[in-house]
Design brief:
It comes from Drosophila albomicans (Fruit fly). This protein is an alpha+beta fold. It is built from 8 helices and 12 strands. The chain binds 2-acetamido-2-deoxy-beta-D-glucopyranose (NAG) (5 copies).
């Protein structure tokens, strides 16, 4: 019994130690949860069955019914426990090691804790920063939202503007097209204008032509009017001439006696001839029958004498007045005894005034003969038996020739000589039976 008691006390003591050891181990482990867990699991695993067993044994011992039987078992168990104790010792050593490790771990942990603290403070500060940043972020996001809202409104405005631009560009397009059509129309208009300008140019040319033509026409009209005036004056002149003719021209083909009105003389009768050499001749001297005495004085030759039916001399004063008005031609018509006819023209027949002795001018000759006969008397003054104007010093050709005439050294031709002794030199002496002297305005030849 003593042994068992001792063993029991020993066992309890060991148990006690163990419990103390485990208790301290518990406290140590509590700082590190992982270690504690390991510890507990380990302790529990190793000690629990033992404890259970001990409880059971105690119960058995306390109950003390199978105490003897159990002692041997208990001894066995004790050996086992010793063994376990050995192991346990080892374990304890290990545990100690672990403990050291744990302590070191704690230190590390402390360091770690410090680090963690520092980290936490860092984290805190970081968190603060993050908070700040978050705040800023929220601010920014609100800003962003505002921005987005603005952007949206801007976008809508932009869209509107886009549409406006589209419309405007369409307008521009249509305007361009309109401009194109306008340009085409302008081009057309330009070509039309050019055509019109050409037309106008043509018109101007035409107008100029017409102007020139009209100017020509006007000039023509002027000329015509001048001619008309001329005609009228001539007509009135001729009418006047007809009323108061100074020549036989107005009477044309009407031969016979007509009345002339010549200034300085007035009205007087003349014999007009249109048979011998055309119309309008005044017969100024005629020898056709020999009934007239040509032995006449100055005054009679001045006045004129004889009959238009036979022989006559018109008169020197009348000849002077008539031939003073215009240029006259002289036509002489001679017929000799053998009926040969000699005609001659002088284109400037003119009788000067009485103061110049009624001198004879003939002009150019145009005829068949006896020019030299009459030419011999040119520029000679008229002479009568009572008016000696000839070139003969002693004596009067008019007395000798029995007639008044334009004597030189007397005569080559004396157409006033008494009938039967009428003569003219024509490359030889010819005796005449008929003489006519006629005058007509030189203008009449042109008409
Ligand atoms: C602007 O509006 C158009 C049309 O409604 C849309 O397609 C586009 O995404 C918008 N842009 C923004 C920046 O809102
Ligand atoms: C034509 O003549 C008229 C009158 O003489 C003148 O007024 C007009 O300017 C002239 N026209 C031309 C194109 O010469
Ligand atoms: C004759 O002519 C003059 C002008 O030379 C004129 O005054 C006069 O009236 C004329 N006489 C007649 C009857 O025609
Ligand atoms: C002609 O008249 C003159 C002068 O009067 C005269 O002497 C002469 O005899 C007349 N002749 C004849 C033929 O009558
Ligand atoms: C001369 O008279 C004739 C007819 O009388 C005429 O044909 C001719 O032209 C005259 N000649 C001159 C130079 O006048």
């Amino acid at each position: 019994m003593g042994r068992i008691t001792f063993n029991g006390i020993m066992l309890l003591m060991i148990l006690q130690i163990f419990l103390v050891a485990t208790t301290t181990g518990d406290e140590t482990c509590e700082s590190d949860r992982i270690m504690e867990e390991q510890c507990r699991i380990h302790t529990y695993k190793t000690v629990k069955p033992l404890l259970d067993y001990f409880r059971q044994v105690r119960n058995e011992i306390e109950q003390s019914e199978t105490k003897e039987k159990l002692i041997s078992d208990l001894m066995e168990k004790y050996h086992e426990i010793v063994k376990i104790h050995e192991t346990f010792k080892k374990e304890a050593a290990l545990l100690n090691e672990y403990k050291n490790k744990v302590i070191k771990g704690e230190n590390d942990l402390q360091l770690c804790q410090n680090k963690v603290d520092k980290s936490e403070s860092d984290i805190n500060s970081q968190q603060n920063i993050i908070l700040k940043l978050e705040k800023q972020l929220t601010d920014k996001s609100t800003n962003l939202e505002n921005c987005q809202v603005q952007l949206k409104s801007l976008n809508s405005t932009l869209i509107e503007k886009d549409e406006n631009i589209k419309r405007l560009s369409e307008n521009i397009k249509s305007n361009k097209e309109h401009q194109k059509t306008l340009e085409l129309e302008l081009e057309k208009s330009k070509s039309i204008i050019i055509k019109h300008e050409n037309d106008i140019q043509l018109c101007r040319l035409e107008n100029n032509k017409l102007n020139r033509t009209s100017e020509n026409i006007r000039e023509e009209q002027k000329n015509i009017q001048l001619k008309l005036k001329d005609c009228e004056t001539k007509l009135s002149q001729s009418a006047l001439d007809k009323l108061t003719p100074t020549t036989c021209l107005p009477f044309g083909d009407y031969s016979g006696v007509h009345q002339l009105n010549v200034s300085g003389i007035g009205l007087f009768n003349v014999l007009c001839d249109s048979q011998l050499a055309g119309p309008g001749w005044i017969v100024i001297q005629q020898r056709v029958g020999g009934n007239e005495n040509f032995t006449r004085d100055w005054a009679t030759f001045r006045k004129g004498f004889g009959s238009f039916e036979s022989d006559f001399f018109l008169g020197l004063e009348k000849l002077h007045r008539i031939t003073s008005l215009q240029r006259f031609e002289l036509y002489t018509h001679l017929v000799d005894e053998d009926d040969n006819t000699y005609n001659a023209r002088y284109d400037g027949f003119k009788i000067s005034d009485e103061d110049n002795g009624y001198a004879l001018n003939l002009g150019k000759f145009n005829g068949t003969n006896y020019e030299e006969g009459m030419r011999y008397h040119e520029n000679m003054k008229f002479s009568t038996f009572d008016h000696d104007n000839d070139k003969v010093d002693n004596g009067n050709c008019a007395v000798w020739g029995k007639s008044g005439w334009w004597y030189n050294h007397c005569s080559n031709c004396n157409l006033n000589a008494p009938y039967g002794s009428l003569y003219c030199w024509n490359y030889g002496f010819i005796l005449l039976k008929e003489v006519k002297m006629l005058i007509r305005p030189k203008e009449a030849m042109k008409k």
